[in-house]
Specification:
By secondary structure, the chain is α+β, with helices and mostly antiparallel strands. The protein is 16% helix and 34% strand. It is built from two helices and four strands. It has a four-stranded antiparallel sheet, with helices on one face. A hairpin with a 2-residue loop joins strand 1 and strand 2. It is globular, with a radius of gyration of 13 Å. The termini are far apart.
Length: 91
C-alpha cells in the first residue's frame, strides 16, 4: 500500500503529482532522480510510491510516518520510497 502518483517527465523538469493534484516532487527525491534518468522524452507514468519494511513488504504506516503524518520521527525517509509503475499514460 502506498500513495498513487502521476510522474510527469518533461524537458523543463520532473513533477510528481498526487491524485488530488498536489505537487509532491520534494517529498520523493529518489523517485524524482530515477525519473530524470528516463528523459529526455516527455512522458507521464502512473504508479504508486511505497516504502518497504526490512522484509521487503510495502508498509503504508511506515510511509506515512516518513512523510511526517504522525509527527513521529522514524529511521526511514520518504527519500527511500520506490515507485511501482502501473501505466505509461503518455509518451
Amino acid at each position: 500500500d502506498g500513495y498513487r502518483l502521476a510522474v510527469h517527465i518533461e524537458p523543463q523538469g520532473i513533477r510528481i503529482l498526487t491524485r488530488g493534484g498536489h505537487d509532491w516532487t520534494h517529498r520523493f527525491p529518489a523517485i524524482e532522480q530515477a525519473a530524470r534518468a528516463l528523459g529526455p522524452a516527455t512522458m507521464i507514468i502512473d504508479g504508486e510510491a511505497v516504502l518497504l519494511d526490512e522484509e521487503g513488504r510495502s508498509d503504508f504506516g511506515l510511509l506515512q510516518r516518513s512523510l511526517g503524518a504522525s509527527g513521529k520521527k522514524t529511521g526511514s525517509r520518504a527519500s527511500d520510497a520506490i515507485l511501482y509503475a502501473f501505466d505509461l499514460i503518455y509518451l
